Predict the structure.
Amino acid sequence: MKIYNSLTRKIEEFKPINEGKVSMYTCGPTVYHFAHIGNLRSYICEDVLEKLLRFSGYDVKRVMNITDVGHLSSDADTGEDKMLKGAKRENKTVMEIAKFYTDAFFSDCDKLNIKTPDVVEPATNCIPEFINMIEGLLEKGYAYKAGENVYFDTSKLKEYYVFGNQNEEELMVGVRDDVEEDTNKRNKNDFVLWFTKSKFEDQALKWDSPWGVGYPGWHIECSCISMKHLGETLDLHCGGIDNMFPHHTNEIAQSESYLGHKWCNYWFHVHHLNDETGKMSKSKGEFLTVPLLESKGYDPLVYRLFVLQSHYRKPLTFSYATLDQVAATYKKLKNRIAAIDFSGDVNDALVKEWHDKFEEAVGNDLNTAMGLTLLYDCLKSDLNGATKRKVIEDYDRVLSLDLLKEGDAAEADDELTAYVETKIAERAEAKKAKDFAKADAIREELASKGVIIKDTREGTVWSRA
Ligand code: AMP
Ligand code: ZN
C-alpha cells in the first residue's frame, strides 16, 4: 500500500512499525456545534483509509479524541473557548453541549457508514495524563511558566516547521480567526499547555493542577490520548489539512520533546471541502449538515459517494447540482446491482483476483475513484452472479455504500418493474411489426438482467431467473 506522507511530502510505501499491525490516530471533532459536511469529508476519507488497511489484512487499532475542552476560537490560543461559546449560544452547560453534539456527530457518522474508532476518548477524561506530560516537559526544559499559564518553548527545537512548507500566508490560514498578541509568549509560535489565566474568567470547566486551577490547551490532548492508548510510537496520524498547522506541528513538537524520539511515521491530511465561495465553515453561508441534506431528500450515502468520487488530496467543491448528479448515479448503481441474478457457484479464485486488483488500485494513495471504476468493471464483467455478489460485498467493506442492502429493494423493484414492462411493450410492438430479430434481442437483453419472460394466452409474463 502506498500513501502520501505529509511529513516527507512524498508518496511512500506504507510500512507499520509492527508487522501486520497498524496504530492509527484521528483528531476528533470539537463538540460545540454540528459537524458540517466539510468536517465529515475528512472523517469519510479516514474511514476509507482504516477500512482499506483492514481490507489489506492489517490489524488496525484506531483511536479518536473528542475535544470537549481547551479549543479556543483561534487555533493560536486566543479568543473564547469554543465549548463555552456553544453553551452560551444555547443556554446550556458545557457538558450538556458536549453530550448533545457528540451524539449528533456519531449519528451523522452512522448515517454515512463511518465506523466508530476502536477507542473514543473525550479530552476531559484525561486531565491527569495531560498534567503528567506537562510536568515532564517542564522538567526537560521544553516548557515555561509565564503569566500563570504554562507554555511550550518552540525555540528549544532543532526544527519546528516539520511539515516544511509554512510560509507567512499559510501561517495566517493555520491560525484562522483573529490573532491577538499574547505577551507572555517568549516566541511567536509558543503555545499554551495549561491555562490558569484566561481573559475569559468564566471558563466553565477547571481542574486543580500544580500550576493552579485551570484547563489544558488544545494540542496536548491529542498527544496524550494517542500515547495513552497506542504507546510511544504511532504509525499513522490523520486530520483535515487545516490541522497541519499549528495543531499537528505542535503535537509533534511536544510529543517528540517529551519522548526524546520520533513519534509518528505517517501523516495523512484530507483537503478541504469548499462551497462556491471558498472553504466551508460553520460561521459562513448555509450551514451544511447531514440532517439538512436529509431534509432536502438526499440519502446521506449519496454524499459519501460524492466524496469517494474525488481524491482526498484535492480540494472538492460542493454544489447541489453535483449532488443531484451523484444521487442519480447512486440510484442507477443500486438498481443495477438489484437486477443481477446472483445464482451460480462462487469462484473463490476469481474473488481473490478482484480483491487484489482493488487493493492495488485503491491502495495507490487512496484512489477511491479507481475503486468505483473497478466496481463498474465487475458489474460489466462476465463473472457469474454468485461470484459478482461476493466481489461487490468485498468492495463494500471499504466503500460502505450499502450496495447490497435490501432496504431500498422495494424502490429498486419498482424501477425494475417499470423497465421490464417498457421492454415487454416494445417487444410486443416489434412482434406486431414482424421484427422478430428485435423481439429476440429484447428477450436476450432482459435475460442478461436476470429476467425471464414467457408468452402466455393472457399476455407476456415475467419472473426473475
Ligand atoms: P473541528 O471539529 O473544527 O476540530 O474539525 C474536525 C475535522 O474537520 C478536522 O480534522 C478539520 O481539519 C476538518 N475540517 C474542518 N473544516 C473542513 C473542511 N471545510 N473540509 C474538510 N475538512 C475540514
Ligand atoms: Zn488533534
Observations:
- The two ends are 40 Å apart (CA to CA).
- Residues 172-178 have pLDDT under 50 and may be disordered.
- Residues 32 and 364 are 36 Å apart (CA to CA).
